[in-house]
Amino acid sequence: GGNVCVDTRCNYYNQSYQWRKAVNFCMKKDGEICLVTPGSPRCWAVSSSDTAPVLWSLGATVRLVGPSGERTIPIAALYRDDGIEYLAKRPDEVLVDIHLPPADGIHSVYLKLRRRRAFDFPLLGVAVAQQMDADRIASARIVLGAVASLPREAAEAAGMLAGQRLEPDLIAAVAERAARPSKPLDNTDLTHPYRKKMTRVYVERALRRLAGLADGGRPDPFIEEARP
Q: For 25, which of 3, 5, 31, 221 could close a Cys bridge (C-beta 3.0–4.6 Å)?
Protein backbone atom coordinates (compact mmCIF):
# COMPACT_ATOMS: atom_id res chain seq x y z
CA GLY A 1 0.00 0.00 0.00
CA GLY A 2 3.00 2.34 0.11
CA ASN A 3 1.97 5.75 1.42
CA VAL A 4 -1.55 4.48 2.17
CA CYS A 5 -0.07 2.15 4.80
CA VAL A 6 2.91 4.26 5.88
CA ASP A 7 3.91 3.89 9.54
CA THR A 8 2.94 6.48 12.13
CA ARG A 9 5.65 8.90 13.23
CA CYS A 10 6.73 10.57 16.48
CA ASN A 11 9.65 12.70 17.64
CA TYR A 12 10.42 10.13 20.33
CA TYR A 13 10.35 7.19 17.91
CA ASN A 14 12.02 8.51 14.75
CA GLN A 15 15.45 9.00 16.32
CA SER A 16 18.74 7.13 16.44
CA TYR A 17 19.13 4.11 18.70
CA GLN A 18 21.50 6.06 20.97
CA TRP A 19 18.99 8.93 21.34
CA ARG A 20 16.11 6.57 22.09
CA LYS A 21 18.20 4.63 24.58
CA ALA A 22 19.09 7.85 26.41
CA VAL A 23 15.39 8.54 27.08
CA ASN A 24 14.70 4.88 27.97
CA PHE A 25 12.93 4.20 24.66
CA CYS A 26 9.16 4.52 24.11
CA MET A 27 6.12 2.27 23.88
CA LYS A 28 6.28 2.06 20.09
CA LYS A 29 9.70 0.40 20.23
CA ASP A 30 11.45 -1.24 23.21
CA GLY A 31 9.90 0.95 25.93
CA GLU A 32 6.92 0.71 28.25
CA ILE A 33 5.31 4.18 28.18
CA CYS A 34 4.29 6.79 25.63
CA LEU A 35 6.69 9.68 26.22
CA VAL A 36 4.20 12.13 24.70
CA THR A 37 1.54 11.29 27.31
CA PRO A 38 3.23 9.14 30.00
CA GLY A 39 -0.06 8.43 31.78
CA SER A 40 -1.76 7.01 28.69
CA PRO A 41 -2.03 3.25 28.05
CA ARG A 42 -1.61 3.72 24.28
CA CYS A 43 0.84 5.12 21.73
CA TRP A 44 0.05 8.54 20.22
CA ALA A 45 2.32 8.49 17.15
CA VAL A 46 0.88 10.48 14.25
CA SER A 47 -0.61 9.34 10.96
CA SER A 48 1.76 10.74 8.33
CA SER A 49 0.14 9.73 5.05
CA ASP A 50 -0.74 12.29 2.38
CA THR A 51 -2.83 9.88 0.33
CA ALA A 52 -4.98 8.60 3.23
CA PRO A 53 -6.97 11.80 3.90
CA VAL A 54 -7.35 12.43 0.16
CA LEU A 55 -8.68 8.93 -0.57
CA TRP A 56 -10.89 9.09 2.53
CA SER A 57 -12.43 12.37 1.35
CA LEU A 58 -13.12 10.85 -2.08
CA GLY A 59 -14.91 7.81 -0.63
CA ALA A 60 -12.34 5.22 -1.72
CA THR A 61 -12.52 1.53 -0.87
CA VAL A 62 -9.62 -0.92 -0.64
CA ARG A 63 -9.40 -4.64 -1.39
CA LEU A 64 -7.37 -6.79 1.00
CA VAL A 65 -6.29 -10.32 0.07
CA GLY A 66 -4.89 -12.99 2.38
CA PRO A 67 -4.78 -16.77 2.92
CA SER A 68 -8.35 -16.77 4.27
CA GLY A 69 -9.79 -14.90 1.27
CA GLU A 70 -10.40 -11.31 0.30
CA ARG A 71 -12.49 -8.43 1.59
CA THR A 72 -13.32 -4.92 0.41
CA ILE A 73 -13.69 -2.17 3.01
CA PRO A 74 -14.05 1.62 3.02
CA ILE A 75 -10.61 3.17 3.36
CA ALA A 76 -11.82 4.83 6.57
CA ALA A 77 -12.11 1.33 8.08
CA LEU A 78 -8.46 0.59 7.26
CA TYR A 79 -7.16 2.87 10.02
CA ARG A 80 -7.17 2.57 13.80
CA ASP A 81 -6.68 5.31 16.36
CA ASP A 82 -3.52 3.76 17.78
CA GLY A 83 0.08 4.70 17.02
CA ILE A 84 1.28 1.07 17.04
CA GLU A 85 -1.68 -0.95 15.73
CA TYR A 86 -2.60 1.76 13.27
CA LEU A 87 -3.98 -0.50 10.52
CA ALA A 88 -6.97 -2.84 10.57
CA LYS A 89 -5.23 -4.89 7.89
CA ARG A 90 -4.23 -8.30 9.23
CA PRO A 91 -0.50 -9.19 9.11
CA ASP A 92 -1.12 -11.87 6.45
CA GLU A 93 -3.18 -9.57 4.21
CA VAL A 94 -1.94 -7.50 1.27
CA LEU A 95 -3.63 -4.36 -0.01
CA VAL A 96 -4.07 -5.09 -3.72
CA ASP A 97 -6.60 -2.54 -5.04
CA ILE A 98 -7.82 0.97 -4.34
CA HIS A 99 -11.21 1.79 -5.86
CA LEU A 100 -12.47 5.33 -6.39
CA PRO A 101 -16.05 6.32 -7.23
CA PRO A 102 -16.70 8.20 -10.48
CA ALA A 103 -15.25 11.70 -10.40
CA ASP A 104 -18.18 13.36 -12.20
CA GLY A 105 -19.23 16.48 -10.33
CA ILE A 106 -16.57 16.12 -7.63
CA HIS A 107 -14.27 19.04 -6.88
CA SER A 108 -11.40 18.38 -4.50
CA VAL A 109 -8.21 19.87 -3.13
CA TYR A 110 -5.43 18.83 -0.75
CA LEU A 111 -3.24 21.31 1.11
CA LYS A 112 -0.22 20.32 3.14
CA LEU A 113 1.79 22.02 5.88
CA ARG A 114 5.44 20.97 5.98
CA ARG A 115 8.72 22.56 7.01
CA ARG A 116 10.76 21.87 3.88
CA ARG A 117 9.86 22.76 0.31
CA ALA A 118 11.31 19.43 -0.79
CA PHE A 119 9.77 16.03 -0.02
CA ASP A 120 8.67 15.88 3.59
CA PHE A 121 6.08 14.28 5.82
CA PRO A 122 2.99 16.38 6.55
CA LEU A 123 2.71 18.35 9.77
CA LEU A 124 -0.90 18.95 8.75
CA GLY A 125 -2.91 17.77 5.78
CA VAL A 126 -6.33 19.05 4.73
CA ALA A 127 -8.35 17.17 2.10
CA VAL A 128 -11.68 18.58 0.95
CA ALA A 129 -13.98 16.94 -1.61
CA GLN A 130 -17.39 18.24 -2.59
CA GLN A 131 -20.04 16.79 -4.87
CA MET A 132 -21.59 19.61 -6.86
CA ASP A 133 -25.18 19.97 -8.04
CA ALA A 134 -25.08 22.89 -10.47
CA ASP A 135 -23.64 25.78 -8.42
CA ARG A 136 -24.49 24.30 -5.02
CA ILE A 137 -22.76 21.66 -2.92
CA ALA A 138 -24.76 18.44 -2.69
CA SER A 139 -22.40 16.85 -0.17
CA ALA A 140 -18.88 17.34 1.10
CA ARG A 141 -16.12 15.71 3.14
CA ILE A 142 -13.30 17.35 5.06
CA VAL A 143 -10.55 15.03 6.30
CA LEU A 144 -7.57 16.14 8.38
CA GLY A 145 -4.20 14.42 8.32
CA ALA A 146 -1.27 14.45 10.78
CA VAL A 147 -3.42 15.58 13.74
CA ALA A 148 -4.01 12.13 15.29
CA SER A 149 -2.96 8.50 14.90
CA LEU A 150 -5.40 8.19 12.00
CA PRO A 151 -6.96 10.67 9.54
CA ARG A 152 -9.65 12.68 11.32
CA GLU A 153 -12.89 13.52 9.51
CA ALA A 154 -14.53 16.87 10.26
CA ALA A 155 -18.02 15.57 9.50
CA GLU A 156 -19.94 18.26 11.37
CA ALA A 157 -18.14 21.03 9.49
CA ALA A 158 -18.64 19.32 6.13
CA GLY A 159 -22.35 18.96 6.87
CA MET A 160 -22.65 22.74 7.03
CA LEU A 161 -21.81 22.87 3.31
CA ALA A 162 -24.71 20.70 2.07
CA GLY A 163 -27.08 22.65 -0.18
CA GLN A 164 -24.97 25.81 0.07
CA ARG A 165 -22.84 27.97 -2.19
CA LEU A 166 -19.29 28.66 -1.09
CA GLU A 167 -19.47 32.22 0.21
CA PRO A 168 -16.78 33.89 2.38
CA ASP A 169 -18.87 33.96 5.57
CA LEU A 170 -19.81 30.29 5.25
CA ILE A 171 -16.21 29.33 4.50
CA ALA A 172 -14.99 31.06 7.67
CA ALA A 173 -17.65 29.36 9.80
CA VAL A 174 -16.93 25.92 8.34
CA ALA A 175 -13.18 26.36 8.85
CA GLU A 176 -13.72 27.29 12.49
CA ARG A 177 -15.88 24.20 13.05
CA ALA A 178 -13.47 21.93 11.16
CA ALA A 179 -10.65 22.78 13.55
CA ARG A 180 -12.49 21.19 16.49
CA PRO A 181 -11.53 17.55 15.70
CA SER A 182 -7.90 18.65 15.23
CA LYS A 183 -6.11 17.83 18.48
CA PRO A 184 -2.41 17.53 17.68
CA LEU A 185 0.05 16.67 20.44
CA ASP A 186 3.67 17.62 21.02
CA ASN A 187 5.02 14.65 19.08
CA THR A 188 6.16 16.02 15.73
CA ASP A 189 7.74 19.12 14.17
CA LEU A 190 6.47 22.62 15.02
CA THR A 191 4.39 23.30 18.13
CA HIS A 192 1.01 21.65 18.54
CA PRO A 193 -0.84 24.95 19.26
CA TYR A 194 0.48 26.27 15.94
CA ARG A 195 -0.61 23.13 14.07
CA LYS A 196 -4.05 23.41 15.70
CA LYS A 197 -4.33 27.04 14.59
CA MET A 198 -3.23 26.19 11.06
CA THR A 199 -6.02 23.61 10.73
CA ARG A 200 -8.56 26.42 10.60
CA VAL A 201 -6.34 28.42 8.24
CA TYR A 202 -5.80 25.52 5.86
CA VAL A 203 -9.45 24.47 5.72
CA GLU A 204 -10.37 28.05 4.90
CA ARG A 205 -7.71 28.19 2.18
CA ALA A 206 -8.86 24.89 0.71
CA LEU A 207 -12.48 26.03 0.56
CA ARG A 208 -11.53 29.39 -0.89
CA ARG A 209 -9.53 27.63 -3.58
CA LEU A 210 -12.53 25.45 -4.45
CA ALA A 211 -14.67 28.57 -4.59
CA GLY A 212 -12.20 30.29 -6.91
CA LEU A 213 -11.41 32.95 -4.31
CA ALA A 214 -7.96 34.29 -3.47
CA ASP A 215 -6.36 32.73 -0.38
CA GLY A 216 -5.49 36.12 1.14
CA GLY A 217 -3.26 36.81 4.14
CA ARG A 218 0.51 36.97 4.48
CA PRO A 219 2.44 33.88 3.34
CA ASP A 220 3.71 31.77 6.23
CA PRO A 221 7.36 30.66 5.95
CA PHE A 222 6.47 27.09 6.99
CA ILE A 223 3.61 26.64 4.54
CA GLU A 224 3.98 24.53 1.45
CA GLU A 225 0.80 23.65 -0.38
CA ALA A 226 0.38 20.62 -2.62
CA ARG A 227 -1.32 21.18 -5.94
CA PRO A 228 -5.00 20.20 -6.14
A: 31
